[in-house]
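Progress note, sequence design subtask.
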């Protein structure tokens, strides 16, 4: 009995020392982890301070991530206006605002969605080298700016892209149903049109014919002339000239 008590007295300090060592290591790990988290938060705040335009996309991505996991509560309602394909005319440069307003009156579409399409057409024009007003003229001729139009041949959306033929182009946007999203259809349509123009040696006329019917097309039925005439009207509108919308 005495030997056991002596052994316990000897062993107990060692056991306590091991526990204290484990606890100390855990505290150190937690402290370092919190320090890393704090550093990451500080870096994120600093980056958002340097680039404030990143704040809204970051909030949208976070909201989408939480919404997908059913985390959002009633106190954080979805702001559907953020998903709307529309901008105020005042947010556009004056020539673009003139074009958007003219197209809205001519095709009887709300000016704010037209403003978003006009702005996107100018963005795509820089990367595709296809004139913005030619892009808008194609939309006007193909769909009169109605995003849900579908032809008997299967052409869909604003630019009447043959979704079955160009299905792979829509994969990056979530699949074929993205053809009815106005901006997605616009981006895919411009890519198809740009390729058509390049394949026809840079000729806008021949590129438009190819966009309309490919190699099999023999007669365009006045399509190219109609598109180019609309482009000329848009050029005049952007220059501040009075062009009848009727």
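Output:
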């Amino acid at each position: 009995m005495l030997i056991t008590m002596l052994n316990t007295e000897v062993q107990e300090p060692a056991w306590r020392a091991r526990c204290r060592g484990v606890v100390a290591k855990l505290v150190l790990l937690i402290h370092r982890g919190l320090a890393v988290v704090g550093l990451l938060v500080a870096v994120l705040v600093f980056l958002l301070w340097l680039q404030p335009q990143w704040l809204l996309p970051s909030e949208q991505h976070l909201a989408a991530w939480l919404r997908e996991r059913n985390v959002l509560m009633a106190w954080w309602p979805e702001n559907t206006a953020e998903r709307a394909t529309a901008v105020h005319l005042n947010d556009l440069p004056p020539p673009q605002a003139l074009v958007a307003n003219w197209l809205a009156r001519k095709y009887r579409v709300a000016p704010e969605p037209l403003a978003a399409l006009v702005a996107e057409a100018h963005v795509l024009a820089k990367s595709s080298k296809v004139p913005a007003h030619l892009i808008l003229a194609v939309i006007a001729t193909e769909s009169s700016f109605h995003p849900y139009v579908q032809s008997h041949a299967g052409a869909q959306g604003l630019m009447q892209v043959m979704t079955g033929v160009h299905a792979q182009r829509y994969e990056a946007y979530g699949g074929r149903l993205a053809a009815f999203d106005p901006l997605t259809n616009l981006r895919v349509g411009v890519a198809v049109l740009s390729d058509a123009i390049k394949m026809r040696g840079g000729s806008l006329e021949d590129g438009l014919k190819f966009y309309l019917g490919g190699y099999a097309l023999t007669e365009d039925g006045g399509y190219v002339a109609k598109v180019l005439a609309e482009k000329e009207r848009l050029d005049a509108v952007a220059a501040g000239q009075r062009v009848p919308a009727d």
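The CA atoms of residues 210 and 216 lie 9 Å apart. Work on this subtask will continue into the next period as scheduled.
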